[in-house]
Design goal:
The protein is of the alpha/beta class. It has one domain: Rossmann fold (3-Layer(aba) Sandwich). The chain contains 8 helices and 5 strands, in the order H-H-E-H-E-E-H-E-H-E-H-H-H. A 5-stranded parallel sheet has the order 2-1-3-4-5. The radius of gyration is 19 Å and the shape is globular. 30% of the residues are buried.
Amino acid sequence: MDPAERDFEPYVKQMMQLMTENLARMTHTISKTDINALLSEILRARRVFVIGLGRSGLVAGAFAMRLTHLGIPTFVIGETIVPGVSEQGMVGDLLVMFSSTGRQGTAVHIAADMKNIGKAKVFLITSQLKSPAGDIADHIVHFQCDEYQKQCAEEGWTCFAPLGTFFETAAWIFADAVISGIMEAKGIDADAMENTHANLMGLNLLPDD
């Protein structure tokens, strides 16, 4: 049978259900202390910086967008308008790093400079408790992704959430839930956020048909 002629609907829905069930289970394993610490740090921060590579970077960018809609000064590391690191020039600032592995690389080097030179605080969202990024972080939110992916593989779901997908999906949902928590804490509703919504993007400059 031609693979392109397959009925994919049952398998895709099964994968969606499996993802939903495992995300729900993992939600209960996230530490109350870690959640409260992250929201408190964001609410207290002078400025918030976010960083992530690859798909984690997309999650970080989406999180930054929503923080901006909440009126919180936010920068995505790698963009041209990000302030530079200077000696103690980031006191009161917070870096939120999204990294499934937390392994050594560009993001870790940047985080180290921001903390050691700029004196910013570093908050890591990851699936690995022990890592180079974790060694730098002041605080860690840990997602137990490996445990659930291993269980799925043992049950025969070998194609479940490959290449870090489970972490990235969990991180996106977690980040959106954090935004809801900040909205509640600041007494901001969706109508107020609409006033700071991006309206100078290129698509808005196209003429109407």
